[in-house]
Amino acid sequence: MAPATTNNNNKPVTKSGPVPFKEVDDGSVPDHTPKEEFGELVAALPRKQQSILELRLYQGFWLPEHWVPGTIVFQRRFAPRPDDVILASYPKCGTTWLKALAFAVMARDAHPPAHPDHPLRRLNPHDCIPFIDEIFAGGEDAKLDLLPSPRLMNTHLPFTLLPDPVTNNGGTCRVVYVCRDPKDMAVSLWHFLRRRHPDLPFADTFESVCDGTVPVGPVWDHVLSYWRASQANQDRVLFLKYEDLLRDPAGNVRWLAAFMGRPFLADEEAAVQDVVELCSFEKMKGLEVNKAGTSGAYKAMPRDAFFRKGVAGDWANHMSPEMAARLDGVVREKLQGTGLAFS
Ligand code: A3P
């Protein structure tokens, strides 16, 4: 860790990461985006409208159209640093929580989690960790170079679409993935989309989840891409489930910290509890910063849309037993023989 110095306010600062992305992002927008470079390629891809989103089928996954050019640039030009940590998730499966936990764990020397000035008490987790997919879509990837190491970044792309230097065995950067029971993901996604499209019927979102035409879907292929990678290389890819995080947050925080190369020492038990408390659903939802406005790349979404209910099993309030059995059946069939199961 780099030595601490002081800033203009005479507060100690450290030159090592992670630092909140908002502190290095000057808000500038480049003149050119990858859209101009790869527009023709994108226009030739299969297309599907899903509620408010236009999707394109790219390398086996339905990506939001505006992500495709950035994904190509990410795949071709991203240069990972050996100590990078990429937080990956299927949307609505605990991304915000994982971002908060990872930031709190990795930044705990500079920012003790119980401290009243902790960045997560004044910034939404999406302002602390940059969202690769939107950063590259907007041509803003040079901003990632400004982050001190170790860098934390997040993506919704499947493992198979990540750049070769991240996925190949010779690399050293790490990937943490969080997934969730697809039934709860479907309900969470519907509530999220309804913030922009209040009349959206649940049946529409449900059908899209079942046939795979959801953002970065099919969900089973997404989950399996990380499951297989974690099975093949457990030191490089950590596979977490939202339900396990709810059941045993402290155990998962210790595991996450060890995986990211910052294990909690025996005398840090209080810090583990402080991280869990700081990042708990009730605490985060109750913070003023998470109640109003928009964050990071999610300028179209109010911050409170990321903190709805935070439980497992809410699907039962939205799906008939037949719908649940149908989605469970599709997912079970796709995951058969892989050693991974949700129900
Ligand atoms: P629900 O809609 O089921 O409540 P993502 O961050 O990937 O968009 O996922 C959002 C889901 O995670 C939402 O689920 C949200 O309430 C839940 N969530 C957000 N922060 C959380 C936290 N700190 N602890 C537990 N769940 C959280």
From TrEMBL:
Renumbered to this chain, region (Disordered) spans 1-33
Alphabetically, the GO molecular function entries are:
sulfotransferase activity
Tell me the domain of life.
Eukaryota
Extract the InterPro entries matched here: P-loop_NTPase, Sulfotransferase_dom
Q: Where is the composition biased (Polar residues)?
A: 1-13
Keyword annotations of the record: Transferase
Annotated Sulfotransferase domain ranges read: 82-339
The record's similarity note reads: Belongs to the sulfotransferase 1 family.
Q: What is the name of this protein?
A: Sulfotransferase
